[in-house]
User: Fold this.
Amino acid sequence: MDAAASYADSGSGTPENKLHFLDYWRIIRMRKLIIFMVFVLVVTTTTLLTQWIEPTFMSTVRMDVQKDTSDISPLAPQQIQMGYDPYFVMTQFEIIQSKEVLYKVIDDLKLVQRWNQKYLLGESKLKAFEMLQKIIDPRNVRNTSIIEINVYSKDKAEAAEIANKIAEVYKTNRDELRTRLVDEGIKTLKIKLAEHDGFVELAKSNVNWVLKDKGIVVTFEGGNSMTSLDVETLRQLDNELVSLRTVLTRQQTRFDELKKLKQEDLRNAIGVIQKDELLDRGLEKLNVARQEFISKSKDLGPLNVEYVRMKDGITELSDQVDKRTAAVMLGLEADLKATQKTVDERTQKLEEEKKKNLDFAVNKRLYQQAREELDRQMRLRETVDTKIKVEEIDKVIKRSSAVRIIDIAEAAVKAAYPKMKLNVALGALVGLILGIGLAFFIEYLDTSVKTIDDVERALQAPVLAVIPQNVGALLEEGMDSPHAEAYRVLRTNILFTRKDENANAITVVSGGAGEGKSTTVLNLATIFAQNGSKVLLVDSDLRRPSLHKRLGLSNSLGLTNYLLGQNKLEEVVQTTALPNLHFLPSGRLPSSALGILNSAQMKNFITDAKSRYDFVFFDAPPIMGVSDATVLASGADLSLLVIQYRKYPQTLAIRARQMVDKVGGRLLGVVLNNINLASDSSYYYYSGYHYHSNNNADEPPTNGAPTGKAERRKSSVSTDAPASIKSKY
Assistant:
């Protein structure tokens, strides 16, 4: 493998080894026998096992499972989820398979005793439960509330019995559970009602204490509680105080303005502001006296009695008006003080009322809180009491069962398992997959040469020809044989591949025995001779010579006799049925001449033969078996390596290539031999064209059996005939 890696790495431009679909198809065609055998084995085994397995029967019971609802609308409001609820259905699956249901089924049907006799459960209910779980299969009909319970058993009657019992127990449990839950709920509600009665009494005591301790008087008007505190009174007192303060401000302002006036102006202002009859009459008399004095004083002198009287009268009236004005001012001042006193009294009263209102508000808040707590407790108590009454009424309302068995289980007519058709179909599929997988696995383990790419990548040498299977000697098959075209291709590639026209000594080697080396060299020499070249075919496989048998000639004299100097070349070379093809057999190999090929006589022979013939072909032994092949590879001009398709590992071919290189030989190329064109279509294009172009395309070759012209040629040559010595070169 190291040599393979080194050769693969040394080449440049080597195409990547990528598998194409046709490569997979090629592997399948190559390994079709293995695939078929595995396929038949698996299908046969599956069929026999299916027939051997004891049949299992299935019975099914179908139930319509709904959520718990009453036949008429309940008094208590309920939130009902409409439509399909997968969680509810899955929950019912688990309940059906629970110990609550299955233990009851086991007890009712006495499955522990029955199954202990058949399956030796040891009187264990748990084992019976586990076994029962395995044989039931609940399923939901899609988008419906229908549940199917499938039960499998070897006994068809038992399967139906268990299925029906499971449905019956499940239905009974649902009904009992609904009643039990309602009773427990009512019992709990009654306990809560008693608790709320205590809370209500406590709240009432708290309300009474607040009323008594704070002195709050409560009256009821129209069903609403009213307290003795009148908020409107506070608002009225506040409004009156505002009005009084306005009056006080107005009086104070007026009084202050009057005090600022002169006496004469004060008299007039007071008369306007404050209506006073005495003051008004005094002012009127004073005005009249003044007018009279003014009108008469012009005619009277200051000393006139009338003048003095009138003046004294004016003075007297003026004094009276002043006095009255002072009296009015005093009245205004008294009113101002009275108003001020009233404002002060009302202010004090308002503050007192506000303080009383604040204290009352605190007490009222305490009362309201106590009252609200009492109302809340009473509402809660009433709610619980109502709920109890509603639940008791709903309990007695007629209800249909939430579980309705719509299809009872019946004994099955035919077995559910095993299913012959399905098992055989699956067996066929598995067999096909296993067969193909085994074929690819064997192909993966097979390291032999399979494709031209394998050869060129591993050996870094071109493939000169692809030889099909069952190729015999062309001298026997005839030159018009379909196999001859492959060797014509080989001849053409040799002529175009060799660089030196004088390199006409060619040895054909192989890595191991049985790779078709002798047939290849014989047919190649035949093709060259048929083309008009003068060819000498030398059987240099001294230990196992075979070419003389193929040609029907004698091996009594040959190469060993010539190399030992016992005979001349003319005496050992024989003619064949083909005029241009001469044959030199190996001759008898004495034990003293094992290394005779590695001698000067052999080198002289090669030189002499090359000068006498256009081409000299040597049939060498396997290069890995003896040293003769490496000697011939080093002595000849060119070497051809024959590799049989799918026979030896690639490492053998790589080692053969290395040995040719080590002795200085020149490897011209590789012949890929024994290709099965019928099973490996990837090689069709290398040799298939000739089969269709042949006149006898409709008559396939008969595995090397001689026909027609080849038969006559064979009859003219006898293996017992004496050697015909070549007389002219």
